[in-house]
TrEMBL record:
Origin: domain of life: Eukaryota
Biased segments, Low complexity type: 52-69
Domain CS per the UniProt entry, residue ranges: 103-242
Organism: Tribonema minus
Bias kind Basic and acidic residues: ranges: 1-11, 75-85
Protein name: CS domain-containing protein
Annotated region described as Disordered, given as residue ranges: 1-85, 195-217
């Protein structure tokens, strides 16, 4: 039998994991009328929330992300003063990266803390919360335990009927056990250059209203996901947001101590192998019971 207690007590900094700082879920307030909220002393983009009359049209209501995702702070302003990058860009890519298309326009950004990953997808100008759809679904073939909280493996973000980003997440994320289909997301002005509107949304005869919408600031859908780690008390550092996408230099992650990373990686691999063995054994036991 494998002794898992050593992983529960592990406190070393890991290449892909580190001691996790506890955090609380964001408190969401419902408004009867559309309300604007400003973060960071007024230098943050405007955030749109659904009024009660619009909520019925958008089951996945926008929720404010955790403090580690998408909120500009004083540190980013100081860093921006020392570089040629806007503070907003530094916030969207903290411990992550920006992804651009072949024309150099931004398509999505991602950032991470010890406990969360925030993926910000660029949306067409004029996008409203009621036109946004965000889904995080599970992979039925992925190994799981019966007592384990539901996990999400696949992300799909759409707006105005067009898919903006879809792909498998680099690592599984923890879903709300009471409502696995619930996803925390918020719609804001991007405050940076936009990606071209999806071709499916462009028509040959553009009205005056559509032209006005195209000139408005680009929008951004920030999806906040809670990391899942098979090792109790540890958090997982991601190399990328979506499988097949760009990856980052793990040594550049802020606040991460790379000392002893190789040894920690070995412990991590052993934990994952032990987890897979437990799942396999449980499946065999269920099969024997079913046959008998």
């Amino acid at each position: 039998m494998v002794d898992y207690s050593k992983w529960d007590k592990m406190a070393a900094d890991m290449s892909d994991s580190e001691d996790e700082e506890g955090g609380s879920k964001p408190v969401v307030t419902a408004f009867d009328n559309p309300t604007s909220v400003t973060w960071g002393g007024g230098d943050a983009p405007e955030e749109e929330r659904l009024a009660a009359s619009e909520a019925a049209a958008a089951p996945q209501a926008a929720k404010a992300p955790s403090s580690s995702a998408g909120t500009p702070g004083a540190d980013d302003s100081k860093r921006a003063a020392l570089t040629d990058k806007p503070a907003r860009l530094l916030t969207l890519t903290r411990n992550g990266a920006a992804v651009q298309d072949d024309c150099g326009a931004y398509t999505y950004f991602w950032s991470q803390s010890r406990g969360d990953v925030a993926i910000t997808v660029v949306a067409p100008p004029g996008t409203r919360a009621s036109e946004v759809e965000v889904k995080v679904t599970s992979d039925a073939s992925a190994p799981t335990l019966a007592a384990q909280a539901p996990l999400g493996h696949h992300l799909k973000v759409s707006a105005k009927g067009a898919i903006l980003l879809e792909g498998d997440l680099t690592y599984p994320v923890a879903l709300d056990p009471d409502d696995p289909e619930s996803v925390d997301w918020v719609l804001q002005d991007l405050g940076l250059p936009a990606r071209p509107a999806p071709e499916s949304a462009v028509e040959s005869d553009v009205s005056t209203a559509d032209q006005s919408s195209e000139r408005s600031p680009a929008r951004a859908i920030t999806v906040t996901l809670r990391k899942h780690s098979p090792i109790a008390g540890a958090a997982l550092w991601w190399k990328g947001a979506v499988k097949g996408g760009p990856t980052i230099d793990m040594a550049a992650i802020e606040g991460r101590d790379a000392k002893g990373a190789s040894a920690s990686q070995k412990v991590w691999d052993e934990a994952m192998e032990g987890f897979r063995a437990r799942v396999k054994q449980l499946k065999l036991e269920r099969t024997e019971v079913d046959i008998g």
